[in-house]
Design the sequence.
């Protein structure tokens, strides 16, 4: 196929001939005598001059001797055009397959597909081994209170009866017979058939009481004390109290509160008779408010005791409630003029025995007897008790 370059060479030859012949005017030849002939070649785009594009060839004389063919020096123009595209040839036979190319990079993950239908349940697996026992949980809230049970049968009260005992085999100089037992018929009276224990409190030949009596004289440090009575101002509990024969015992006495103490006088005609002279019983412990609780300890459990509570207030009258509590409880009121001794619920008298005013109770199973005096104040000269 003939190319545009072949046409360019032919065109250049033609241009030289044209410029030599020019128009045959000898005058013009003289005017440009010595001037060079020049050719300018440029690409021609597809269009009216060349349907498929080609080369534009311009020729002329270098009238101004610049060495460049200027536009006003162009004397002729020719075109060397490209041929048009021929018809498409038949397809050639397929070549042998090429070698497999390298594996391309993994493409991006596609969107998640819709969830499929739920499959049928599989068969149950074998039971697993039993786990370790967990920690014990916290206790639950308490349940509702149950219904009240039926009322039980009433118990029987314990009773003590004290009667005079004449001189004889039981008491040489007479004394008191103390019987005790349960009130089985709830009559409030200890019948002969209800008596389970009998004891005697005998008078000595001189009208004194037994050496088993344990007495405690209250007062301040300046007070004197009856022979073999224990002395206390109430500031400390007492242990190993001595009895009236001077022998130490296992009995103790405790105080619920610390009282005041006072060297109170006592009218001699209100001091009862006893195995020792009690005229030194003067002095007291006191308070103008509250109560005093005295606890005898170390007693024989269940044994009967005669108990004596001695009230005394110096310079003023007094009234106070007293309670003696063991297996049984005995309560009474002491009321007397100033400087007057009371023995339990009686005003003392130098014509009476101390033992004649005794109150009888049995020690609790733990071996105690409790005495409570007053509610808005108390005044005490002493306390004593005697095992029967």
Sequence:
């Amino acid at each position: 196929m003939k190319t545009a370059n072949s046409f360019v060479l032919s065109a250049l030859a033609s241009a030289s001939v044209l410029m030599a012949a020019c128009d045959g005017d000898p005058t013009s030849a003289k005017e440009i005598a010595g001037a060079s002939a020049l050719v300018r070649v440029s690409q021609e785009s597809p269009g009216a001059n060349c349907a498929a594009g080609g080369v534009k060839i311009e020729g002329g004389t270098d009238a101004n001797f610049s060495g460049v063919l200027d536009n006003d020096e162009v004397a002729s123009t020719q075109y060397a055009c490209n041929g048009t595209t021929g018809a498409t040839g038949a397809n050639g036979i397929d070549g042998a397959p090429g070698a497999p190319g390298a594996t391309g990079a993994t493409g991006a993950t596609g969107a998640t597909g819709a969830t499929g239908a739920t499959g049928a349940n599989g068969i149950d697996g074998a039971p697993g081994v039993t786990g370790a026992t967990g920690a014990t949980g916290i206790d639950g809230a308490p349940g509702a209170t149950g219904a009240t049970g039926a009322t039980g049968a009433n118990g029987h009260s314990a009773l003590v009866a004290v009667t005079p005992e004449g001189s004889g085999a039981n008491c040489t100089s007479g004394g008191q017979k103390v019987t005790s037992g349960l009130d089985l018929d709830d009559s409030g009276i200890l019948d002969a058939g209800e008596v389970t224990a009998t004891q005697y409190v005998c008078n000595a030949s001189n009208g004194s009481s037994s050496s088993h009596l344990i007495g405690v004289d209250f007062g301040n440090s300046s007070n004197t004390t009856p022979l073999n009575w224990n002395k206390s101002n109430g500031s400390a509990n007492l242990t190993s109290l001595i009895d009236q024969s001077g022998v130490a015992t296992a009995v103790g006495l405790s105080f619920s509160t610390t009282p005041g103490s006072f060297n109170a006088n006592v009218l001699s005609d209100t001091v009862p008779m006893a195995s020792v002279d009690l005229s030194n019983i003067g002095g007291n412990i006191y308070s103008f408010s509250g109560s005093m609780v005295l606890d005898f300890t170390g007693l024989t459990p269940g044994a009967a005791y005669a108990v004596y509570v001695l009230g005394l207030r110096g310079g003023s009258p007094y009234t106070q409630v007293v309670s003696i509590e063991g297996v049984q409880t005995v309560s009474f009121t002491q009321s007397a003029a100033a400087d007057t001794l009371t023995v339990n619920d009686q005003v003392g008298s130098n014509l009476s025995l101390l033992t004649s005013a005794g109150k009888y109770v049995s020690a609790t199973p733990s071996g105690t007897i409790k005495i409570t005096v007053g509610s808005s104040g108390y005044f005490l000269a002493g306390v004593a008790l005697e095992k029967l």
